[in-house]
Specification:
The chain is of the alpha/beta class.
């Protein structure tokens, strides 16, 4: 029987429902342990989503691109969001893009070719800036990402997006953030930035797609030391301050410690020639994720280095198609 809260929501307009209920439920996600989520009563059923049912990876849409202010971080830096909106009435599936840059550089424009490709297939893609380590080290960018999920759930309807379909795409250190938010949507450290417009929103997502994610930052650090790469070593020390945080914010070690986590469906795309985040690191993490009960697809791309998608190639085309097909699978499962 529906409780009072559910009845009140069902009486709201469809727009209010999409803005407030969205993907607050963790139904359909594998979990270790149990997370209380009062927002479960607010709906967000993917099986009833028009956007999910209508998504076709082969579709072709023209897109509008616009920018707006996302949030201002504690050091006063204005973070921006870039909106890739398919032209049409929608509703469209929703994707949050988290940029890479070794926690220390890049911004919302880093994955523009991938974002354009995904949006042109009929996905509302929103790429956000995140705080950089030189300005604000750990956990600032993860807090930006967590806030970004809630912010996008609340605002997706403005651009004909259906927030009940929300997923994350992250590259390199952005993939690190995507994995952590997917696994720890209720973590008090990551969720520290309040969202007063709707305090009940959480950061649960339907899926996580990633390219060369830093699934084990300590193993990546060890690789940098072994290869005598001072810049990469320095990036780790700037971000993980104090140093012990490299173990706390480590997706691989979180699983090894058997912590309570959510396990949304996960896609990892790795380059076979990646000597930045080694394929062996991704293989170990994928096996651990699966052993914990999660659905993880690992795709290794031949003749591809860490940032192979930055150049047009058959492997880049394959990466874009892989992400689209993965999203389709999650929306139609």
């Amino acid at each position: 029987m529906q409780n009072k809260s559910q009845n009140q929501i069902l009486k709201k307009s469809r727009r209010e429902f999409l803005a407030q209920s969205s993907s607050l439920t963790i139904l359909g996600l594998s979990t270790i342990g149990f997370f209380p989520n009062d927002a479960l009563a607010q709906g967000g059923s993917l099986k009833d989503s028009i956007a999910a049912k209508n998504y076709d990876p082969k579709a072709k849409f023209e897109i509008d691109i616009k920018e707006l202010e996302f949030r201002k971080n504690a050091n006063g830096r204005q973070l921006m969001a870039r909106i890739y909106q398919p032209k049409g009435s929608g509703p469209f599936p929703v994707l949050l893009d988290l940029h890479g840059g070794a926690w220390n550089r890049k911004n919302r424009t880093a994955e523009q070719p991938m974002n354009r490709s995904l949006a042109s297939s009929g996905i509302l893609v929103v790429a956000i800036d995140m705080s950089l380590a030189g300005d604000m080290p750990y956990p600032a960018c993860f807090q930006d990402a967590h806030y970004g999920v809630r912010w996008l759930k609340f605002n997706a309807h403005r651009w004909q997006g259906d927030p009940s379909t929300i997923g994350i795409y992250g590259s390199s250190s952005g993939g690190h953030a995507a994995e952590l938010i997917g696994m720890k949507p209720f973590d008090p450290v990551f969720s520290a930035i309040p969202f007063p417009e709707n305090p009940n929103l959480d950061a649960t997502v339907r899926y996580v797609a990633s390219r060369a994610p830093i699934s084990d930052p300590f193993a990546r650090y060890q690789n940098a030391v072994a290869r005598a790469r001072p810049d990469m070593i320095k990036n780790h020390h700037i971000f993980f301050h104090p140093w012990e945080k490299i173990y706390e914010a480590n997706p691989q070690q979180i699983l090894d410690r058997h912590e309570k986590v959510s396990l949304p469906p996960l896609l990892i795309m790795a380059g076979a020639l990646d000597d930045n985040v080694l394929p062996a690191i991704q293989e170990r993490f994928a096996k651990s994720y699966q052993a914990a009960g999660g659905d993880c697809e690992l795709k290794i791309f031949a003749n591809s280095e860490h940032e192979w998608v930055a150049e047009e190639s058959l492997q880049t085309d394959l990466a874009r198609l892989t992400v689209k097909n993965f999203i389709y699978k999650q929306l139609h499962s």
